[in-house]
Amino acid sequence: MSDTEFEELATAAYQGERVAARRLAARMRLTEADALRQVLTGAAGQAGLPSLMAERARARLRDELRRAARTEEKAQALALREARMRPPSDGWRGWFDGSAHPNPGRIGIGALLQGPAGERVEISRRAGYGNSGEAEYLALQALLEAAARLGATGLVVYGDSQVVVNDVNLSAQAVAAGRGAKGLEAHRARVVELLGMLGTVSLRWVPRHRNGDADRLSQQAIDQSDGVDGVP
To answer: From edge to edge, which strands make up the β-sheet containing 201-205?
Structure first.
């Protein structure tokens, strides 16, 4: 038996059949190739080995096509998700982060606002005393206030606080049903007011490692000895 013929048999064989062939070869002093042929011939039964080989080749092709289709579906879904996350080229982008040291404690807020023409505004300042949820909301408010002053359009805002992002994105019905974040109602109302002034704004969650500039600015605010506003 040629190496090519053995490879064809090995490709067609299931794992259990290959194990059985190796055991048969050891017990009967056969080559692994001859033992595998015997095992597959037994599995084929009356249909014969050629029929078994052809059927398993068709099954492998079907599996490959299904895997390729699933891979393509995943690639398309990923491309669509990335496209949705990508802001329009003529729009503004913003990032926000708030810190409380300890929690609750001194609040530092940080935000970065970038425009399509190269505009860049950094916000880094103290914002009183409170907890981390309040700090995140105050950072978002500061960012939106700066965006409103500059007339920002097509704004996409990113933050790593799931509490705040999810709270702002709640439907009016959900808020009326009391599903909003407790103790942050006034902050949410202010953000909703600012969003109404700005028009279409998309607020999206990102993991902390993708929010580095805003985090740096919020920590910088905590370390400041005074409450200087970083907005020019």
So the answer is: 120-130, 105-114, 93-101, 155-159, 201-205
Q: pLDDT at position 85, please?
A: 58
Whether 232 is covered by a domain: the verdict is: no
Domain count, the chain: 2
pLDDT in tens, 17-67: 999 999 999 999 999 889 999 999 999 999 999 999 999 999 999 999 999
Rama region for 158: left / alpha / beta (φ>0; ψ in -120 to 50; rest):
beta
Residue 106 sits in the same domain as residue 71: no
Which residue range(s) make up the domain with 174? 93-223
Instruction: Judge whether 87 lies within some domain.
Output: no
Q: Is 137 exposed, middle or buried (0-12, 13-18, 19+ CB in 10 A)?
A: buried
**Is 0.85 topped by the overall pTM?**
no
Question: Strand (E) positions, the chain?
Answer: 93-101, 105-114, 120-130, 155-159, 201-205
